[in-house]
Amino acid sequence: MTRLPAAPGCAADLTSHAAWDAGAMGCGELLLELRFRLQPLQAGQRLSLVARDPGAVEDMPAWCRLTGHKLIQADHPHYLIERRSDP
Fold it and tell me: pLDDT (tens digit, 9 = 90+) per residue, 41-79?
C-alpha cells in the first residue's frame, strides 16, 4: 500500500492499494488503460495515479463521474481513485 500526504487541514485516509505512473500518456489512452488497472481491485480499494497530461485536470473528474469510480484526491499530477462496486 502507498500512503499519500493529506491536504493541509484534511485528515482524510489517502491509502492506496495499487499505484501507476502514467507519465505524459494522453488522456484517451490513459483512460482506457486506467479501466484495466482498476479491474483487478476490489470495490473500495484505491489506485494512486500520476498523470502528467495537462488534460487530466478536467478528464479525471469527468471520467470518474461517468464510470462511477470515486475521485478521492486530485492534485495534478497526483490522483487517488477508489474503485466502484460492481453493479
Answer: 999 999 999 999 999 999 999 999 999 999 999 999 999
What separation, in Å, do the N-terminal and C-terminal C-alpha atoms of the chain show? 26
Nearest alpha carbon to residue 23 among 54, 62, 65: 54
Closest-CA residue to 70 (of 54, 50, 46): 46
Residue with cell 478521492: 72
Residue carrying the nine cell digits 479491474: 39
CATH number of the domain located at residue range(s) 13-82 in this protein: 3.30.110.40
Q: What is the pTM of this model?
A: 0.83
3-state secondary structure of 7: coil
